[in-house]
Amino acid sequence: MRTHIYEFNPDDAMRFAYEQGINAKRQGNELMFNICPYCHGNFSKDKKTFAINLKTGAFNCKRASCGAKGNMITLARDFNFSLGRDVDEYINPSSRYKNMRKYGRPKSKPAAVAYMESRGISREVTESYALTTQRDRDNILVFPFFDESGDMQFAKYRKMDFNPQTDNSKEWCEANCKPILFGMDKCDPEACDTLVMTEGQIDSLSCAEAGIPNAVSVPTGKNGFTWVPHCWDFLSKFKTLIVFGDYERKEITLLAEMKERFHGIVKHVRPEDYKDCKDANEILRKYGKQAVCDAITNAVIASNSHIKGLETVRRRNLSEMESFSSGISQLDNYTGGFYFGQLIVLTGERGKGKSTLGSQFIAEAVNQGFPSFCYSGELPDWCFRDWFERQVAGANHVTARRQPNGFIVYSVDTDAVWPVQQWYTGRCYIYDDSIIEGDDEGESLIQTIRKAIVQYGCRVLLLDNLMTAMQDDTANDFYRQQSVFVRELATMARKYNVCIFLVAHPRKSNLNEFRNDDVSGSGNITNLASMVLQYGDPRDENDPGDRILRVTKDRLTGYTNYKGIPLWFQESSKRISETENEFNWMYSWETDADGFRTDDMEIPFGEDGTDG
């Protein structure tokens, strides 16, 4: 349980430096200040002087003559730095509240006792909480609010004969009083570490009537939380909070706010234990004290949208999960293929063929019937198409032509162009790189990817690469935006059950010692990925293969393969094979694709290339 009102946010440390006019730079987990705000010691002279830990918020100055230390609360107090309204009020109460202590503890008047008895509250409880009426108005009930020391700080009034036709207000508060919880003085956290909180005062008194210890109510209704800074230390003494708010429109008042504000265990009364009632007092009057006790005893932990019981998780087996083959049998032996719901990071040195390997994975996906989407920040769309079609066609359907300058140009044979195109039409899409900035109505790449999934039914996606993909999604904090971008991809992969390949460059060139943290950019990139593949040169010139494919992370199976799988490359077809000199596998356009065969297709043009 946290015992403080403030939860550290690294952004507050950055903001403090900015508001103090001090240059600061992040180094690892610390924000290093050029100048100590306390002693004004200079960073360049004293080297590492003042720093704030970006994980905990603790700070210190290492100059012996200063030695300032503390946390963000300390900085807020010493430099009048705002950490939000509740925290500011907690640190330095700004309001001057009316002195209510001079009124002492009132005695309960007969009119107050009679009214409370009509609500099921005994004389004993009424007198214990010092309920009374105004001096000259017996129809105005007074609820005095006493703090832990027994001093009155707040007062609330209720018109007992309220008539909505003639009266303006049923309840109101004494002006300029410190808002605190009703019933604080009756609570003993040492005897019981559970606190019950209701919306109305009569509801907390109903709990007291039922023999429930430590029952309080809020001063100004379900939407008023000005009491929090003044009661935080009191709340922090309890381990568990049971919210017994009003049950309205299938929701329990106070619950949503207290789930966020209270840092212990938050429970709530079950909806079924309200029976047909709105609040604790109605339950007391209709069903008696035991029903109130049962409602509190049966309280359940407040649900969290991110937490569920393990037993509710649907059992799944990798053998039953949808996947597609990578086309590289040794890789499939390690990974089981590429499973849907995964974000797969493909990394390796620049110019070593990551884009080519990613494109071949897309060809395999299309061949197995999965519509695909490609974003290429590396290649123009026409170039990506040319490489992709050469991979699909294979060397037997690719012709090499030597240019006058000696350069060799490869192109898919004329008789294969049409069947290859027909084979992938409607099953493979690419980001339109002809879009001029401003013509896309502000649609981000993430939005485009989502539409490719939802509207076009794409199941496999290739984003080549992270740095260019981020160009449309950057902000001042580039690394943070990278984390956000990659997290959205991982979320989409799971939500829509698709497989996303993300090409990312490494930081260093010596990939023989590659580790996942070497991927360039935010450290969260490989943390968020389900699988990391590293594609690069063999470690030794005597090792087989033109390239080596290593599995450096596989969250589903737990297997890794740092030794790697040797692969060979064929320039004419752009194909990558795990067997040297074997590149002539066939995709379904050559055999049987969706009911048609290449040898009995209707050709839409004559043999001479003119329209038939």
Structural write-up:
The chain has three domains: 10-91, DNA Primase, Chain A (Alpha-Beta Complex), CATH 3.90.580; 101-301, 3-Layer(aba) Sandwich (Dna Topoisomerase Vi A Subunit, Chain: A, domain 2), CATH 3.40.1360.10; 328-569, Rossmann fold, CATH 3.40.50.300. Helices cover 27% and strands 21% of the residues. The protein has a nine-stranded mixed beta sheet with strand order 23-20-24-25-19-26-27-28-29, sandwiched between helices. The protein contains 19 helices and 29 strands. The longest helix has 19 residues, at 478-496. A hairpin with a 5-residue loop joins strand 3 and strand 4. The protein is elongated and about 110 Å long. It is of the alpha/beta class and 612 residues long. Helix 7 crosses helix 10 (280-287).
Give the SSE layout:
Elements: H1 10-19, E1 24-27, E2 30-33, H2 43-46, E3 50-53, E4 59-61, E5 69-70, H3 72-79, H4 85-91, H5 110-118, H6 123-128, E6 132-134, E7 137-146, E8 152-159, E9 171-173, E10 194-198, H7 201-209, E11 215-217, H8 228-235, E12 240-244, E13 247-248, E14 251-252, H9 255-261, E15 265-268, H10 280-287, H11 289-297, E16 300-301, E17 323-324, H12 329-335, E18 338-339, E19 343-347, H13 354-367, E20 372-376, H14 381-393, E21 398-402, E22 408-412, H15 414-424, E23 428-430, H16 445-454, E24 460-464, H17 466-469, H18 478-496, E25 499-504, H19 524-528, E26 531-536, E27 547-554, E28 561-570, E29 575-577
Parallel strand pairs: 10-11, 10-12, 12-15, 19-25, 19-26, 20-23, 20-24, 24-25
Antiparallel strand pairs: 1-2, 2-3, 3-4, 4-5, 6-7, 7-8, 8-9, 13-14, 15-16, 17-18, 21-22, 26-27, 27-28, 28-29
Helix pairs in contact: 4-8, 7-10, 10-11, 13-14, 16-18
